[in-house]
Design brief:
245 residues; 4-stranded antiparallel beta sheet; 4-stranded mixed beta sheet
């Protein structure tokens, strides 16, 4: 069984690492612990906004609402994949197919010409950051309550003093938090952080920024193609399916 590593212990270790509190000669006071908790949560919020320092991807599932365009997803900060699932209406047995959705820029989604109010398969989406998470816009408006699945990064949440951080983060990420908090505590106290701590932290940040890169592979979905794949008839009349010949 893994040994618990609480927020309180991380704060104490960060104080020792910063040099503000001597490991063999001083004890961390209650006020210092409270300051450390505030600074740690500040650190988590800032690093959570810089998505390259969030190393874990999470899957989120829910159902579309018929005719609804906007969906609020709490704490979501970055989407890597967005898909929905469709059951084949032409077979007696249940057959489910996963469909990829296309990400549109703000201009493409809100400014390009399109027919409004069309209910069909929701093939395109656009994400807008907002207070507490993200609003996701989908088009076409869902004609059925399709199950959708998002794989992405979610904000790092505040922690409490007695929370077991080993249940939330791997050991290497806890070390990163420890070094980062040590530097923030020094800045809070207007103390120059140890140079070795700063260098180690910078090296860790450089490694973390490339550990879970975003997938920038370009893929093009053809809606009006005349050959293979989906076309306007499939979307409007076939609802994503073609009857077997």
């Amino acid at each position: 069984m893994a040994v618990a590593y609480t927020t309180r212990q991380l704060i104490i270790d960060s104080y020792y690492l910063s040099g503000i509190v001597g490991r063999n000669y001083e004890f961390t006071t209650g006020d210092e612990i409270n300051d450390g908790l505030d600074r740690l949560n500040d650190f988590l919020q800032i690093k959570g906004a810089e998505t390259k320092f969030i190393q874990y991807y999470t899957k989120f599932e829910d159902n579309f609402v018929i005719g609804q365009e906007v969906y609020f997803i709490p704490n979501l900060v970055e989407i890597d994949t967005f898909t929905f699932f469709l059951t084949n209406p032409y077979q007696t047995s249940t057959t489910t197919v996963r469909f990829q959705m296309e990400n549109l820029s703000r201009e493409e989604y809100f400014a390009y010409p399109r027919a409004e109010g069309v209910k069909s398969l929701p093939y395109t989406w656009h994400m807008e950051r907002c207070l507490g998470g993200c609003n996701i816009y989908v088009y076409f408006l869902p004609v059925q309550p399709y199950l959708f699945q998002i794989t992405g990064k979610f904000a790092l949440l505040n922690t409490g003093l007695n929370q077991d951080l080993s249940q939330l983060f791997d050991g290497w990420y806890l070390t990163y938090l420890k070094y980062g908090l040590a530097i923030w505590l020094c800045e809070w106290r207007s103390v120059t952080p140890p140079l070795s701590v700063v260098k180690t932290f910078e090296q860790m940040e450089q490694s973390l920024s490339t550990l879970s890169p975003f997938d920038f592979t370009l893929r093009k979905l053809e809606y009006f193609a005349t050959g293979g794949g989906l076309n306007w008839g499939d979307i409007t009349y076939g609802k994503g399916w073609r009857k077997p010949s």
